[in-house]
Design goal:
homodimer, 318 residues, alpha/beta, ornithine cyclodeaminase, domain 1, 2 domains, 12 helices, 16 strands, globular, Ornithine cyclodeaminase (chains A, B), NAD(P)-bd_dom_sf (chains A, B), ODC_N (chains A, B), ODC_Mu_crystall (chains A, B)
C-alpha cells in the first residue's frame, strides 16, 4: 500500500491534470456510471466524522475526514483525514492519500473548472471572500484558468489577510494582490467573485447593479442554513449551475432561493450538462459547488496512478 | 502515524492482554460510556463495504472492511481492511491496524472470554464447527482459557480440515486434534462447542439429551436468516448471553427463537451484566456474539499503545 502526502500530490500532478480529472468526474456524473451513497456524518462532542464512499467501474474508495472546530485554538488544521483507495477486484487497500490536501486540491480544481466554463475568457480580476485554506486553492486554480492580473481579498477576520496575502504571493508572483475593506469594494473591482465562508447570511451586497455581469463561484455554503449570495443575484440569472443534484437540497444558497421562489428548480442545471451543451445563457453567472465523493475518487486515482508509475510515496507493507 | 500489521499485533500483545481488553470493552458497554453508531453496510456488485465507527471518552476510530466473496477463487482473503485510530483531541490519524487480523484476534478473544465465564472450570475438550479463519482463532483462545486436551473439528467442506489441523498443530503442540465425520460425534465428544459457520439452518442435531450440560459459543450467525443452533438447545437454557443488545435483532439464532417463543426477551442478558452479576443459571450455556465496533476500538487502542511504547510498527510521515 502507498501513502501519499501533500508534498507527493504537489509533485505528482499538475494543476492542468487536476482540472482534467474534475472534468472527467463531471462526465462520469452525467453518465451515471458510478455509485455514490449519501455521505455519512457522525457527531462526537462538538466534532464531526465524515465518511464519503464512492464506487465507479474502475475505482473504489472512501474519504474519511474529521472536522474538529476547536483545532484552530491549537494551531492544528480543523479538517484532517485520509482517502482510502481499494483494489476494484479484491477490495485490498492500495493507497492512502492525505485527505485534507486532496480536499483542498480537488475543491480548488472544481472552482477552476467552474471559472473555465462560466467566466468570460478575458477576465483578469478575481475577488475572494473568506481567506482560508479552500480560498487559497481557489485562487491558485483561478489564476491557472484565466490570465489573472489582480486579486482582491476580504475576510471578516482582518488579521488573517496579511499572512494569507504573503503566502499567496509566494505562489502567484506576477499577480497584484489587494486587501479590501468590504465586499462592495471587492465586487466592484472583480470580474470573478469566489466565496468560501461558512456564513449564515449573504456576504455580498444585495445590489443588482453591482452584481450584474459578474461571475460567481460559491464554495462555502454546504448546509441549508448557510448562505453567501443575496436575493439580487438570482434576479440576474437565467440558470444556476451546480456540481451535484443534491446541492439543491444541501446548500442554503439554493434551498432558500427555491423556497422564496427567486429561482425555479428547472433553472438549476448540473455542471456536467453545461459541459456537454455548452450553452451559457446570461452574462451574470453562478456556479455553486457543495462537493462530492466522486471528485475525491477520480482525483485520488490520478494521483495514485502517477505515484505507482513514478515510484513515489511511502510504501507500507500490509 | 503508525501502521501495524498482523505480525506486529502478534508480537505486541499477549492473548491474556487481548482477553483483558475484551473484558474492559464489556464493562464500557455496560457503563454506556461510549458512542457506537450503527455499522454501515454498502453494497458494490456482489461485495460489501463495512464501516464500523466507535467513540469512547479516550479513544476514537473506525474499522473499514471490505468483504469480497469471490476472493476465495483468487486465493485472496475475503475480508480485508483497516482500523483507523484518531487522536481524541484533534482527530488526527494516529494509527492504522490490519483490519482482518484485528477482527480475527478480537473475535477469538470474545469467544475466549465467553468460555472463561460460562464454561465449567475443568473442561478439557472443545469442538469446532466451521474450519475458517475465525474458527482458528476461537480454538487458540479456547486453549488459553481452559486446559484443553482434545479438539474435535468439523466442516462441510472436508478438504479444508487436513490443512486446518496442520496449521492448528503448529500453534497448539500439546493438544490432540481430531477430525470428526459429523456434528453428532463432535457434540458427543466435546464439552465446549463453538460454531463459526454462515449456515442458514442449524448445524447441530436437534437432540436435547445430546446437547445437555454442554457450553455453546455462537460466532457465525450475524444476519436474521442465519442459524446455527437447533430448537432443542433453547429448552435447556435459563438464559442466553449476548455481546450486544442488537444481537437479538441481528442474529437468526436469537430472532427465530424469540419469534417462535422458544425463549423470551427477558431471558436474554448482555454478557457485561453476567460479568458483573456472575450468576450463571443453568449447566447448559449459550453465549452468542455478533461483534461490535467497541471491541475493535478497545483492542486497537491496546495494540497501538504498546506499539508506541515499544517503537514497533511502520512509521508513516503524514
Amino acid at each position: 500500500m502507498l501513502y501519499l502526502s501533500k508534498k507527493d500530490i504537489f509533485n505528482l500532478v499538475s494543476f492542468d491534470e487536476l482540472i482534467d480529472s474534475i472534468e472527467l468526474a463531471f462526465r462520469i456524473y452525467e453518465q451515471k456510471s458510478f455509485q455514490m451513497p449519501d455521505r455519512i456524518h457522525l457527531h462526537y462532542r462538538e466534532n464531526t466524522f465524515l465518511y464519503m464512499p464512492c464506487f465507479t467501474e474502475d475505482i473504489i474508495g472512501t474519504k474519511v475526514l474529521t472536522v474538529f472546530p476547536k483545532n484552530t485554538d491549537k494551531n492544528v488544521p480543523v479538517i484532517q483525514g485520509l482517502m482510502l483507495l481499494n483494489d476494484v477486484e479484491t477490495g485490498k487497500p492500495i493507497a492512502l492519500i492525505d485527505g485534507a490536501s486532496l480536499t483542498a486540491f480537488r475543491t480548488g480544481a472544481v472552482g477552476g473548472v467552474g471559472i473555465k466554463h462560466t467566466a468570460k475568457e478575458d477576465c483578469q480580476s478575481v475577488g475572494l471572500v473568506g481567506a482560508g485554506v479552500q480560498g487559497f486553492y481557489q485562487l491558485l486554480f483561478a489564476a491557472k484558468v484565466r490570465d489573472i492580473k489582480k486579486i482582491y481579498i476580504y475576510d471578516i477576520f482582518e488579521d488573517k489577510l496579511i499572512s494569507f496575502k504573503e503566502k499567496l504571493l509566494e505562489k502567484l508572483t506576477d499577480v497584484e494582490i489587494n486587501i479590501v475593506n468590504n465586499t462592495r469594494e471587492l465586487v466592484e473591482k472583480s470580474e470573478i467573485i469566489i466565496t468560501t465562508t461558512t456564513s449564515e447570511k449573504p456576504v455580498l451586497p444585495d445590489d443588482e447593479k453591482l452584481l450584474k455581469g459578474k461571475h460567481f463561484i460559491g464554495i462555502g455554503s454546504y448546509k441549508p442554513n448557510m448562505r453567501e449570495f443575496p436575493e439580487a443575484l438570482f434576479k440576474l440569472l437565467d440558470e444556476v449551475y451546480i456540481d451535484t443534484d443534491f446541492a439543491a437540497e444541501e446548500s442554503g444558497d439554493l434551498v432558500i432561493p427555491l423556497e422564496k421562489n427567486w429561482i425555479k428548480r428547472e433553472q438549476i442545471k448540473t455542471f456536467g450538462k453545461l459541459l456537454k451543451d455548452n450553452d451559457i445563457k446570461s452574462d451574470t453567472t453562478l456556479f455553486k459547488s457543495v462537493g462530492m465523493a466522486l471528485f475525491d475518487l477520480v482525483v485520488a486515482n490520478v494521483i495514485y496512478s502517477k505515484a505507482a508509475e513514478k515510484g513515489v510515496g511511502q510504501k507500507i507493507i500490509l
